[in-house]
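TL;DR need structure tokens for one chain.
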Amino acid sequence: MHFNPYGGAAAQVAADLVTLGPAPAAELLGVMRAHGMSLSRLTAAEAEEVVAWAGRLRAVFEETDTDRRVAAVNGLLADSACRPHISRHDGKPPHLHYADERDGAVTRVRAYTAGGLAHLVCDAPDRMGRCARPGCPAVFVDSSRNGRRRFCSTRCATRVHVAEHRGRRRVPAG
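>> reply
TL;DR here they are.
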């Protein structure tokens, strides 16, 4: 099992939902289940609410001022009614839940992502960001060893580095 101490799977779900943007319910559900969320279904109406929530999550990744970032996360926590508790279900070891398992999907997504971002902002606020490639809307949680990630993917990094290289090799006309 890969353990990401920087906000854990919950912060990664937040980043992936922000990056994914508007998407069908099945695709959103797939992203959440890929990170261990036990949601079994998501309606089209719930998907719209999750996409709207992801818009609010984006502000946390894009904010660079610590006080404003903390205020944004505190707002998310208040609006999500996040109630962390330890749960043991389905034969799993004790683990943290941010909302009751009986709550609706949207409530659970809001609480989970707000809680994950709260951990990330408190423990490693420099481990989140927006892709440095101009025009790329992706955000990320930096779980790299050195904590110097600037791009959402190697593809974006390569595009920027190739453009910079070509810019340096151009011979001025004249």
